[in-house]
Every structure is written in C-alpha cells, then in structure tokens.
Amino acid sequence: MKFYRSHILIGIDDSSLQSGVKEIENSLRQELDKNNLSDEVNILETGTLGYFGTGVSITVYPDQITYVNITKEDIPEIVSEHFLKGRPVRRLMLDKEFTSKYDFGYKRRIVLENSGLIDPENIEEYIGTGGYEGWEKALTEMKPNQIVEEVKQSGLRGRGGAGFPTGLKWSFTAPLEVEQKYVVVNADEGEPGTFKDRLIMEGDPHKLLEGVMIASRAVGASKAYIYIRGEYKLCIQRLQHAIKQAYDYGILGKNIFGSDFNLDIYLKIGAGAYVCGEETALIESMEGNRGNPRNKPPFPGVEGAWKAPTVVNNVETLANVPSIIKNGADWYAAFGVEGCTGSKVYTILGDVKHPGLCEVDMGTPLRTIIDGYGGGIKDGKEFKAALVGGAAGVFLPNKMLDVKMDFNSLQEYAAVLGSGAILVMNEDADMVDMLWSVIRFFRHESCGKCSPCANGNEILYRLITDIRNGKGKEEDLEHMIMLSETMKESSFCALGQSLLLPVKSAIENFREDFLARMK
Amino acid sequence: MYEKFIKKYAPTKDNLIYILHEIQDNHPQQYVSEEAVQEVSEYLKVSPAHIYGVLTFYTMFSTKPRGKNIIRLCESPPCFLRGSEQILKKLKESLDVKIGETTKDGLFTLELCACLGVCGNAPVMMINEDVYGDLTEKKVEKIINDIKGRQE
C-alpha cells in the first residue's frame, strides 16, 4: 500500500457537478503533477461534503481544512501555498467558527457517518470502516426473528414521512409462509425540498445495500428492488456499481457467506411521478403500470408486488439498520428521545446563510437546526416562516420554532416531520405566493384516480389564484380549509390527504398576508 | 426499427418503463412514437392503450417530438422561493417559446418539472442529463449561448 502525506477529499454530488467539479479536479491533478506532488498528495472522490450553495468544496486531511467556492483559477495558489509551503489559503477556508460550533465532526451521525469521508465507489473503503459487519452478524449469528426483534427494540420508525415502526412492519411479513417475498426500497424521493436519500445513495451506497440485505434476511425475501427516480442519474450509476461489487465479493448472490441464503438486488427506474412515493403506487409502477395507488387493505406487507408479501421501506430507514444490528438496539435507542429514537437527516434550504444538510438526534429543536446548521437568515433579514416536512408539511411562524423535531412533539403543534425538509423564508416572502406554489405542485401531481383529490386540487388552485390576483374574498379562506378537510377525509391516498396541513397552517398562522391581498 | 433497444430486455411487463426510457433516450427527437408503441406492444404482449396510458402518466416521457436539448425548470416551492418565475420568464424570452414548445431550430424544448432534489442550489434546471443550479438571468443566457455555440 502506498502512503501519502496528505489526502484531498473532493465532494462529488449533483450540486458540485453543476459547479464544474470534474474540471477543477483535473486541473488540481495537473497542478500537483507539475509540482511533483502526485506521490505525496492523494485525491479521493467522495460523496457530498455537505456545504451547498458554496460551489466546489474540498477537505484536506490530516489538516482538516475545508476550502469552499473554489474555481480553476484558485488551484495554483492552493497547491503552492498549502501543499508546497504549508500555509492554508485563508480567503477560501470555510468559516472555522461555523464548523466547530456544530457537529460537522460526525460524532453523532449514523446514516451519513461515511458520507464525505470514504470513496463511495470502492467497497473496500466501506468494509474498512466496519461496513457489512452487521450483514455478516445478521446472517451468521442471528435468526430472522431475532433481527426483527432487535429492530423493534431499537425503536426505529420509518423515515419516509409516516413514522411507522419498522420492526412492526417487518413482523407482519416475516411469518408468512409463501414461496416468494420481496423487499422494496422507496428511493422515489420527490417531496419538494428533500434530497436526503440522494445524499445517502451518492455518498455511501453500500450502507443502503447492507440495510436491504438485513431486511431481506429478516423477512425472508430472496429478491429486493430499489425503486429510484429517473432524475437521480449519479445515484443510479453509483448503486449499479455498488451492486456489482457486492456480487463480486460474494456478499450478494447465492449461498452468501456459505449459508443457504440467496439474495438478488435489482434497480427499478421511475419516470417522474410524485405519487409513486406512495407505496402501493410505487408497486404499480414497478410492475409496469401507471402509478395509481391501490386499495388498502390488503397492505403490501401481505399482498404487494406481483401479489407477493412485500416490505416497502424508505432509503433512510434502511440505512439505519446496519448500525442497529452491528451495535445493538440499546446503542441505537440512546440516540434521540423516548418514542423517537435515533437520528434524522434534514435538508435546510431557502433564505438561510448555509443551505445544506445535517444529521442530528431526534428531538433537536427546530431553532437549533435553522440558526445553527443553517447559519440563520442571510442578508441581515428577519425570519418569517419555515415550511417543515416538504410541500405536504406545515408553515410554522417564529413563535413555534422551539418545537422539538420528533414525530410526537411535532404532533402537538399539528405539524409533521415528513421527509425532513426545512424550507426557511425571510420577511420578504409572501405566504399567498408560497401556498399558491404548494397547491400548484399538488394540482400537477394528483394522479386523477379519485375525485376528492383531482377536483379538490383544481378548486383550491382556482381559489388561491383568485386571492393572489386580488380577486379573493375573506370567506374563501374558510372555504379552502373546509375543502382540504374534506379531501383529508375522503381522498384515496396520502397525496390528496396532504393539502390540509399546508393550507390550514398558512391561513391560520399568516392570515394577515391573505387579507392584505383583499383590500 | 426499435428492435435493438427493445430486445435488450426480457419480454415482461415490468420492463416497460425501462424500454420506454431506452427508446426515448435513443431517439434524436427524444420521444416515443406511435410505431415504437406498436413494436413494444407486440413484444411485451400488452395493449397499445396500456402503453399510451403509461407514457402519458409520467412526466419524463413524451409522445410528441422534442428538441435536442430538453430544458426542465423546477417550479416546486423551494425554487419558487428563490426566483424560478423570473428564470422562466427569461427562458421564454430568450428562446421565444411557450412552456412545452420547441424552438424553430429544434435545439431546445422548454418544460417545467417538479422537485429535482438539488434544492441547496435553487433555482435549478436540468438540460438533458445535466443539472444547472444557482440560476440567475445572466447565467441562463450564458448556458443557452454555450449550448448554441457547441452546435455550430
């Protein structure tokens, strides 16, 4: 093995790719070559480093210095100053105070523990950090019912939005004695403002695969599918690569680790439909149909893909599983709060200084996430609202920012954790416009199967458009809330039921914005 | 004429979406034609109506010819908050098209789409496989001109 004086980690993700990271990486290599440093300084491609809106970023180890917003023109300076003379280039360094104050140090990360540290395209780096130990333990030391029990004990709840206990979900499917069962990964991440699953798959694809393997063993599935949205090109590429490596290493396939357990993992690519995030619609789409949701019951756990019992889990949920099996349920339950254990990945967006991601314990106050990780409101403006949980989330005003971010605490504010997206708006934002944008989204994404959702969205859109154009009346507001309540009661699936939260919270918490359009 | 794309996959219905992606990606006008629907129908033994239903359900598919570069601008709330409306106006002006239309030279089609999951860099658009973020009117003009320049 070759030893290097320094390692440069360069974050390759959808965000940095669009800032020309590949070109910058090339000129970095050339510049190191020119200065005869190629044998001393190694460049490693990794997943996201987590600093969005800051262009291309690199972290240099062992110095632990992160440079952000690098352009091609900066490369000669970085190489000659940092790597030849040992002087960091201060003007490009990420604000130390910001990084040290909050946990960018990976101390309490579970699902993103490797993201931004290892090469996601190299299985050996994943194994080197303790990867696949959970899978080995699950397969060689544990019985399927013990795995289900361990996950139940850990208190893990689904991270797709609904928060259903994962172990309980598995326990419906595990005892069924049929020839074929399936595990399906819901990687059709489409909730506006959400890209946590993309970061997991781009930064550490083997983590997801290991979770899929353990889940398959627990419920007795010999085939697993990852249903991923067609827009996530880099994820698809990295997952395909990771699956191939896992087969090459005998971690997937027939008689894994000498046992009688066989498992194949396949990718299924979506084609752009938000409703396919609903588990039965996702199954329809996987089978080659329009993504219309199915009647429940029967639930997929009993009758899912091709009528076989099917466990559908979100990417983040399954990415938690390897650590639970490896370290035990008690270790996991020590993260978070009672009733909501573990960590949660959030994406913080909008009018904040540092749009990006964080993984923190369940129960962390919303204010800490926005002011801490997000760096507070940018350009010296005032906070106005946060849309928490994606488009199907809740508009929260300043006085509710101390809410703890876990399934139970949020319920007290009639709010939801949803997908973990936090969209922050400053004083200039108008809630009429924002709600209009939310309703426009649902109107477009309604699949048309049931009337409450298809027609309800159409009427809501007409009402909010009238209000936006100054043609609304005050009673329209009550009408909108009533209509979304009806949709909540009568829509076929979660899509049509989702409107109530954003509509009601925007109108109740920011009524003055709506009245201002009626003068 | 679509045989080589279709036969890459086993003749089972669950491969339908894969096959449609494959056909569309390989067509210079990035769409799935009626003839293609016929061929797929015979291969998979599913009705053309079913295939048409699938094609029109998913936003990534088109049943009409499109331009060489498909611009898909995100209109979801995070991008909306960061000014996607102005970007849309700029795109319409500089391409001289409405939403869903293709430029006369066949170079660009302008479409809207839902969240692309790159919201840290909102407003965002995709042109074919590439993502462009932190858009400003100036940046949009440069991106369009660069692509035009590459065609000549």
Give me the secondary-structure topology.
The complex is a heterodimer of chains A (519) and B (152).
Chain A: E1 6-11, H1 14-17, H2 21-34, E2 41-46, E3 58-61, E4 65-67, H3 75-84, H4 96-101, H5 123-128, H6 133-140, H7 144-154, H8 166-173, E5 182-187, H9 196-203, H10 205-219, E6 223-228, H11 233-248, E7 264-269, H12 279-286, E8 310-314, H13 315-327, H14 329-333, E9 336-337, E10 340-341, E11 343-350, E12 356-361, H15 366-373, E13 383-388, E14 394-397, H16 407-412, E15 421-426, H17 431-445, H18 451-468, H19 474-490, H20 494-497, H21 500-509, H22 511-516
Parallel strand pairs in A: 1-2, 5-6, 5-8, 6-7, 11-15
Antiparallel strand pairs in A: 1-3, 3-4, 9-10, 11-12, 13-14, 13-15
Helix pairs in contact in A: 6-10, 6-13, 7-8, 7-10, 9-10, 10-13, 17-18, 17-21, 18-19, 19-21
Chain B: H1 3-6, H2 16-26, H3 34-44, H4 48-57, E1 69-74, H5 77-81, H6 84-95, E2 108-113, E3 125-127, E4 130-132, H7 137-151
Helix pairs in contact in B: 6-7
Given the C-alpha coordinates, what overall shape of chain A results?
A: globular
Q: For the record, what CATH class of the largest domain in chain B applies?
A: Alpha Beta
Count the E strands of chain B: 4
Number of domains of chain A: 4
Largest sheet of chain A: 5 strands, mixed
What is the gyration radius of chain B calculated from CA atoms?
A: 17 Å
Cross-sheet strand order for the largest sheet of chain B: 2-1-3-4
Number of helices of chain B: 7
Q: How much of the polypeptide of chain A forms β-strand, as a percent range?
A: 5-15%
CATH uppermost class of the largest domain in chain A: Alpha Beta
Number of DSSP E strands of chain A: 15
Q: Largest interface, and how many residues on either side?
A: A-B, 56 and 43 residues
Oligomeric state, counting identical vs distinct chains = heterodimer
**Strand-pairing-aware structural class of chain A:** alpha/beta
The percent of residues in helical segments of chain B reads 40-55%
Give the strand order, joined by hyphens, for the main sheet of chain A.
12-11-15-13-14
CATH level 3 topology of the largest domain in chain A: Rossmann fold
Unreliable segments of 5+ consecutive residues of chain A: none
Taking the alpha carbons of the first and last residues of chain B, their distance comes to 29 Å
Globular, elongated, flat, extended or rod-shaped: what is the shape of chain B?
A: elongated
